[in-house]
Amino acid sequence: MTRQELDDRILGAVVGATIGDALGGAFEGCSREHIIGRTGTDWIDDLWDYGPGFGAYGVWCANAPKGLGTDDTRMNHIFLETVIEHGAEISPQRLAMSYILRYQHPERYYHSQHVDLARAHLRDFYGVSCACLGMPCDLHPGAPLYALRERSFGCRFPTLIGLLSLACAGCLFAGRSIEAYKKAFELSYFDVGYAKEACGLHAAAVSMALGGVQDMAVILRELSTLDPFQFSASPFNEPLNRAAATAQELAEQAGDARELSVLLSRKLMPLHVFDPIDTLTVCFAANAFAKGDPREAILIAANHRNVDADGNLVHFRDNDCTGYVAGALAGALAGFSKLPAAWAECVLSANKSVYGIDIVKNVHAFCDVVHGERPGAPSGSL
Asked: Can you tell me the distance from the alpha carbon of 18 to that of 76, in angstroms, rounded to the nearest whole number?
């Protein structure tokens, strides 16, 4: 794979993730009635604006434009910007300091009208980030470091935080899946339990895609047996290890995208919407079914739902997150050049205008740091 092709796939991973985030974000958790009332159908097939609501975790303006990412996109760019500033040998401590500085001095990183929202969002990362650095935390003055490390984030079970924050961690190690797994596991300092393994598995999948493996069946077979730390003797790893195999089985059973969505719903409904097993299974199944079509993969994931006994939509699950994580892998498999051009243009514009995130500039700088500058490449090009 040439450097130009690799850069295109890394840009595809970042933009694909943001497309999935924006597709799902406008309808996260919404009911069947709300979806049909807005779109005329129960299946999202295009980008929509958000309407009047906004908050620290979601978008930061009322009537946010279509294509705008949520907190998922913003956290991914904290990771990218930390690599750009400190180099490819990023550590949990460097990443933790990035979160701390953005909480303490949001005016340095965000538009002035968004400073309070940024601090409200990043507050949840502050305690666990202080613990990562061995620092006392003024938000939790009575808490010892071991408690800050395990309890201060507030999510006391394995969640999506690492998967969302590190959806592009595999881009550090194109074609080196074991290294990608280990680094993502290490960087997910805000995760507990098997959420760290989930980060590792997703990073390994992205790494394999960037290394030229295009067959999701091959990727999923590899993931089903991947065990970098030699933990396979433990029976407690089985649920996460089964996510890849389950995804392949469901993708093979489904006759079309809607049927796959129903199969995923029935399989995963018992799980909490923030469970990384839910998100990984959707990501892997959507990409396996789509067979290299990034649009279809992202749409399947962004339509993740709960259904009734007849298979009808009840409400969407955490579909901005499933769309986001699946989009990162879909973009890594296909590359930016194969993403729907209108969607890509929309997310590039919306995230730059609202958040000040220049996605292309960030990815260009990230690629130069990780893979070396390309002689003669014009500034801002990929």
From this structure: 9
pLDDT higher than 70, residue 96:
yes
Structure tokens at 352: 């730059």
Residue 377 falls inside a structural domain: no
Its pTM stands at: 0.95
Alpha carbon 162 to its chain's center: 8
Asked if 158 and 240 count as a contact pair (C-beta separation under 8 A), the reply is: no
The whole domain housing 17 covers 3-227+236-371
How far is Cα 171 from Cα 348, in angstroms, rounded to an integer? 19
Burial class, 195, CB count within 10 angstroms (exposed 0-12 / middle 13-18 / buried 19+) = buried
Residue 31 is given by DSSP the state: B
Instruction: Look at residue 3 and tell me whether its pLDDT is greater than 60.
Output: yes
For position 326, what pLDDT does the model report? 98
> Domain for residue 184, yes or no?
yes
Rounded CA separation 243/284 (Å): 8
Please give the Cα distance from 133 to 151 (Å, whole number): 16
Dihedral angle of Cα 316, 319, 322, 327, to the nearest 10 degrees: 130
Tokens of 271: 């799980």
Radius of gyration for the alpha carbons in the chain, expressed in angstroms and rounded: 19
- Pair of tokens at residue 242: 């089964």
The torsion defined by the Cα of 319, 325, 326 and 329, in degrees rounded to 10, comes to 170
In this structure, what CATH number is given to the domain that contains residue 162? Answer: 1.10.4080.10
CA distance linking residue 310 with residue 276, whole number of Å = 26
In a domain, 40, yes or no: yes
pLDDT, one tens digit per residue, over 241-272 is 789 999 999 999 999 999 999 999 999 999 99
